[in-house]
Description:
alpha/beta, 20% strand, UspA, UspA domain-containing protein
Amino acid sequence: MRLLVPMDDSEHANLALEYALDNYPEADITVLHVVGAPSMMMGEAVGLVFENDISDAAAKRAEPVFERANKIASERDQDINTTVGIGYPIRNILDRVEKYDTIVLGAHGEDWSRVTRRFLVGNVAETVSRRASIPVILVR
């Protein structure tokens, strides 16, 4: 079984990875972190544009998430794969579904207390669960 576990820097993302590792110990698990998502102020997306090597810059920005993911996996004596996406999280997740059997996703990602951001961006977990052509497990 091949599982895709999209992760941001939230506790819910950590719980999703823990769930995947604990419930599917034999699975091939890939952690996806997406950087450079456009925001209202265009902060991270604009920052990537000014980098000489966008892929390298994205990988560096993903390092803290991957370090945490690898720590969670190593605590369970398991290995994971990691991959970086650039741009919109929903699009990055849905563009990869052909390679996986199931998506395991935290039910709440970023700090959704910012009502304006939620209104403009939408809920990643909700949208992915509605649009994905493979099963999606939402972890709370």
